[in-house]
Amino acid sequence: IFGRAGRPQFDKSGEGIIITTHDRLAYYLRLLTNQLPIESQ
Questions:
Q1: Contact 20, 28 (CB under 8 A)
Q2: Which residues touch 21 (CB under 8 Å, ≥6 apart)?
Q3: Rounded CA gap, 27 and 3, in Å?
Q4: Which of 2, 3, 26, 28 could link 16 by a cystine bridge, Cβ 3.0 to 4.6 Å?
Q5: DSSP summary character for residue 23
Q6: Whether the model pTM is above 0.90
């Protein structure tokens, strides 16, 4: 789960860290580099 934490009126960006195994690295890199619709709740 990634999101913008902090104070929305001041913070315009956020950071996320992915911790995974080497064999799943390509999967997550594809997710990060492909354009997908934004999902929000």
A1: yes
A2: none
A3: 20
A4: 2
A5: G
A6: no
Alpha carbon separation from 15 to 2, 23 (Å, rounded): 7, 23
17: nearest Cα among 34, 36, 37, 32: 32
In the three-class reduction of DSSP (H, G, I as helix; E, B as strand; rest coil), residue 12 is classed as coil
Structure tokens at 10: 């001041």
Q: Which two tokens stand for residue 35?
A: 């354009």
Tokens encoding 34: 């492909």
Q: For 1-41, how does the pLDDT look when each residue is reduced to its tens digit (9 = 90+)? A: 566 666 677 777 777 788 999 999 999 898 888 877 777 77
